[in-house]
From TrEMBL:
Residues 292-312 have a biased composition (Basic and acidic residues). It is an enzyme of class 2 (transferase). It catalyses: beta-D-fructose 1-phosphate + ATP = beta-D-fructose 1,6-bisphosphate + ADP + H(+). Residues 287-312 are annotated as: Disordered. This is 1-phosphofructokinase. Belongs to the carbohydrate kinase PfkB family. Gene3D superfamilies: 3.40.1190.20. Its EC number is 2.7.1.56. PROSITE patterns: PFKB_KINASES_2. One of its GO terms (molecular function) is 1-phosphofructokinase activity. It comes from Actinoplanes subglobosus. Keywords: ATP-binding, Kinase, Nucleotide-binding, Transferase.
Length: 312
């Protein structure tokens, strides 16, 4: 069982518009409401592909109820921790060429007591988990030290921890010795303080995160694919998408596919890239099912040319 933890989940509203024009009334050609938040999406993708997963989510207010209803409707196994604040709604505006504009709320404050309740739920459920996957932004409230303490306790208890977050939360996961971290290009740049221009720059940044404590680094690079740096070496892969529809949740699908396939080696990277590409071809943050996956376009190579330039 893979336990996911989303400290700041959301109800995701995606509106498809012809073109984004500031100051105008825009008519949506289509709209979708999905349960959201990075760990929530990882659980949804795993479930859609027959992999057991439980999602821990703090929820509150009308949006919290809606989130629980949406997740129950999809059949996601839930550990919902009630909180006083209102679960956030995140908005996506998707244009026909695949351009996506996102507006993410800060989310409700998690009090110290609420964070302790969520942490207890996580630590208890972690005893039965193959992986604990903590994803997404931290809500207002918990200090970074409290978050780092949760990561350290999970690793100290012998859990395989994966962290997909940004800024100090990503670095806390690295310092705690997470078995896996999944930064995207911007998160990797922020973590090492340098913007990567080539695959060699990406590999060097991943190596720095491993030297700082992470076991493996899966760096996602949008249309440039992904790079995996772990104890076995370096792999890079791409999965071209002819008609990108919505990139929302693509990184979550990549991570879910990688974990589902064993989180190691070319087979796992290939699977992750196939799930990521499929998510990009689907509207909103819909997660791919087995019928959506096409592994034939995925190309994974060891020790990629370090001078290859990043495009996206
Ligand atoms: N425009 C795209 N074309 C093809 N694949 C994409 C595209 N955008 C994302 N992907 C796939 O989804 C994965 C995750 O996307 P990325 O944007 O890096 O992550 P995140 O959603 O976490 O920001 C990529 O590694 C890639 O496999
Ligand atoms: O926690 P954050 O960083 O605000 O992100 C939350 C958003 O990220 C998502 O999980 C999508 O993730 P990505 O587009 O980064 O893959 C949405 O479902 C959610 O609205």
């Amino acid at each position: 069982m893979i336990l996911t933890v989303t400290l700041n989940p959301s109800v995701d509203r995606a509106l498809e518009v012809d073109a984004l024009v500031r100051g105008e009334v825009l008519r949506a050609a289509d709209s979708h409401i999905d349960p959201g938040g990075k760990g929530v999406n990882v659980s949804r993708a795993l479930l859609a592909n027959g992999v057991r997963s439980t999602a821990v989510v703090p929820t509150g207010g009308a949006e919290g109820e809606q989130l629980v209803d949406l997740l129950n409707a999809e059949g996601v196994d839930l550990l919902s921790v009630p909180i006083a604040g209102r679960t956030r709604s995140n908005i996506t505006l998707a244009e026909p060429d695949g351009t996506v504009t996102k507006i993410n709320e800060a989310g409700p404050v998690l009090s110290d007591t609420e964070f302790a309740q969520v942490s207890k739920a996580v630590l208890d459920a972690a005893e039965h988990a193959d992986w604990v996957v903590i994803c997404g932004s931290l809500p207002p409230g918990p200090s970074i030290d409290a978050f780092a303490d949760l990561c350290s306790r999970l690793v100290g208890a012998g859990n395989r921890l994966a962290v997909d977050s940004s800024g100090p939360a990503l670095l806390a996961g690295v310092a705690a010795g997470a078995a896996l971290v999944k930064p995207n290009r911007e998160e990797l740049a922020e973590a090492v303080g340098a913007e990567p221009a080539t695959l060699g720059d990406v590999v060097e940044a991943c190596r720095r995160l491993r030297a700082a404590g992470a076991g493996a680094v899966l760096a996602s690079l949008g249309a440039d694919g992904a790079v995996l740096v772990d104890a076995d070496g370096v792999l890079a892969g791409v999965s071209p998408v002819s008609v990108p529809r919505s990139t929302v949740g693509a990184g979550d699908a990549l991570l879910a596919g990688f974990l589902a396939a064993g989180a190691r080696g070319a087979a796992a990277l290939t699977e992750g890239l196939a799930w990521g590409a499929a998510a990009v071809s689907l509207p909103g943050s819909r997660m791919p099912t087995p019928a959506d996956l096409d592994r034939t376009h995925v190309r994974v190579t060891p020790d990629p040319d370090p001078s290859r330039l990043l495009h996206s």
